[in-house]
Amino acid sequence: MWNKTGHQGNQWNRAVVPLRKFRNFQVIFEGIRSTDLSGGAALDDLEYIDCAPSAVPGSCPAVTDFVCQSGHCIESHLVCDNKADCADESDEMDCDHIFGSPGACNFNMEDGRWEQSCQLSQDTDDDFDWRISHKTETEGGPQSDHSPDGEGNFLYIHSATQREGDVAKVTTTNPFPASIGLCHLRFWFFMYGSTRMGTLKVYTSGTSGTPLLVWATTGNHGNQWTYANIILSNTVDFSVTFQAEVGGDVWTDIALDDISYTAECMVGGPVTPQPLTCDAEQFQCAYSFQCIPKSWWCDGLPDCTDQSDEEHCPTALPGTVPPQGRCPAKNFQCSDNSCLPSILRCDGVFDCPDGEDEHSCPLLQCEPGELVCESWPGCIPLPMRCDRSLDCLPFHSDESSCHECPPMYCQDHGSCHIEENGPLCFCCFSSTEADLNQQIRQEAFLATSKPHFFLLLLIEIYGNKNLNNFCQKIAAI
């Protein structure tokens, strides 16, 4: 939350530390002794302002908060979301009305009625449809729904009969009124069974029909139902779409259950951006019209209601990988938001402005033609490159640039050529005939300065003229 180091003068210094909107928290003061034993630190006159030890009705951090029967406060968007946030679970009482909202559903009805009952519709421009059941056909999917007794149904995709990349979409039939930073979508999802899970995405679509991605997740989330709470914002009336994309094998079923929306989603709210009113030392949240201290920006903890203070952040620590998400697949995002083909990741050459593409890379010595991969226990062998199987996670460098040569790919004036397993660099050396003959006797191949790619060459050289002709032919390929 706050720290000071170094000599602060022979005087008492005043500090004011904002404590955010934390609930039920403790404050810990920690002093770390340096090697110099002559220094010290002292505290005096501690004061807490507007930090009531226990909340009672009328004294919650926000006027919109829900007051539990115990007197404690929780944020209103956590009420009736099928997850008890009050210690006495009073926030989940009298919630039967929540599934009467358009698009909200627990899917506990007959198979042929869920679209009408839930006010959801299968899209006609996707590859296959969602379905409901009390368990999936494969062991990788949920074997019970999210309800406490596990006796209900859930919505899911059956991936075993589909191709990798196939998409299924389901959309709310009735639009929600326009609002910014007010409407919360809550749901539970299940993604487990494979290291090659697909992707679950949530979109909003306005009157133009153009989808706006508001949330996405991928990967294995464990053998459990996982909670999600998303802010939905759109300047026009909008519908909500859940899209599931099939993963790389038959164990990539994706399921949804207990979808609900907050009351603010039904009434809408102001959509005209308010003028900036934050001080110079504050950060203006993008959609929720809040001001927070600049020190809270990109500190790893979301403070804006819309979480915009944690978006598009630079590298948090020197030597770590920058935040990703703005570049296409099979690309690496540098800290300046430029995109590199991921084949350049962990290749021993700094391609990002600050060399971030070489951060957090394994210390491996790979043979020419092999890839250094951060998720692989060893080196990716040459035959596994460009074989249409994503082996090197998370950037898929083994399937990157299979049909093109990245800019400045070959070092030391090498010539790039596309082969079956991706780009190769041809390197021709300029030297005397005696030196070349000696070099060829010592080495059976000519390698690039990047250790990934090589071409085995067995050459009998009779003179520099023959070598120059050979290099010209190679460069012309």
From TrEMBL:
Keywords: Disulfide bond. Gene3D superfamilies: 2.60.120.200, Low-density Lipoprotein Receptor. InterPro entries: ConA-like_dom_sf, LDL_receptor-like_sf, LDLR_class-A_CS, LDrepeatLR_classA_rpt, MAM_dom, MAM_domain-containing. PROSITE patterns: LDLRA_1, LDLRA_2, MAM_2. Residues 1-53, 103-267 form the MAM domain. SUPFAM superfamilies: Concanavalin A-like lectins/glucanases (SSF49899), LDL receptor-like module (SSF57424). Residues 134-153 are annotated as: Disordered. It comes from the Eukaryota. The keyword Ribonucleoprotein does not apply. Disulfide bonds join C68-C86, C80-C95, C298-C313, C327-C339, C334-C352, C346-C361. Pfam families: Ldl_recept_a, MAM. PANTHER family: APICAL ENDOSOMAL GLYCOPROTEIN PRECURSOR (PTHR23282), RT07201P-RELATED (PTHR23282:SF146). This is MAM domain-containing protein. It comes from Ataeniobius toweri.
